Amino acid sequence: MDRTEKRAFVASLAEVFADTSFVLVAQNKGMTVAGVSDLRRKMRAAGATYKVAKNRLANLALDGTSFQGISPLLKGPTALAWSKDPVAVAKTAVEFAKTNDKFVILGGSLGSQVLDVNGIKALAELPSLETLRAQLLGLIQTPATRIAGILQAPGGQVARVLAAYAKKDEAA
């Protein structure tokens, strides 16, 4: 890489750090090209981006962002993954780390909060953003359904009482 390419890379990475809410740092020492391609494919499917970056350039891009706390993690062959949905990145990385022992999660940052490996695993256990939205929608719809049922019940009871009186009058 020449200097202009390095400046462009640092600028693009700084722009990414400004737009995202979560960055994961992992070590990919000894991974094969096929393994990295598989991981990139899985990350892309989850709506995330996975990029191997030079530590010095990544540190330059981190300066002045809320993710500065992950700078000590950038040692050795590291890679960064990010997404607007932090749970998707964490889930994909943790699942991939279970099957590939050469992919090691070092930590990450959720905004200015630095997370260690256990924090990343805890984040991966949370439901995804889409699942949370569906659950919230279900919670919102449930009371409305119950209210509609409760409001209809007295009207139905009144109708049944009137029908019973009508049958009583017809029988008499």
What is the N-to-C succession of helices and strands?
HEHEHEHEEHH
N- to C-terminal distance: 101 Å
Query: Unreliable stretches, pLDDT < 50, 5 or more residues?
Result: none
The average pLDDT value, as a whole number, equals 83
Structural class: alpha+beta
Domains, number: 2
For this structure, the CATH topology of the largest domain is: Alpha-Beta Plaits
Please report which band the strand proportion falls in: under 5%, 5-15%, 15-25%, 25-35%, 35-45% or over 45%: 15-25%
Bin the helical content: 55-70%
The total of beta strands comes to: 5
The CATH architecture of the largest domain would be: 2-Layer Sandwich
Record the strand order, biggest sheet. 2-3-1-4-5
Globular, elongated, flat, extended or rod-shaped: what is the shape?
A: elongated
Instruction: Write down the CATH class of the largest domain.
Output: Alpha Beta
Biggest sheet architecture: 5 strands, antiparallel
CATH homologous superfamily grouping of the largest domain: Ribosomal protein L10, N-terminal RNA-binding domain
Rg result: 27 Å
User: How many helices does DSSP assign?
Assistant: 6
Organism: Teichococcus wenyumeiae
Function: Forms part of the ribosomal stalk, playing a central role in the interaction of the ribosome with GTP-bound translation factors.
GO molecular function: large ribosomal subunit rRNA binding
Keywords: Ribonucleoprotein, Ribosomal protein, RNA-binding, rRNA-binding
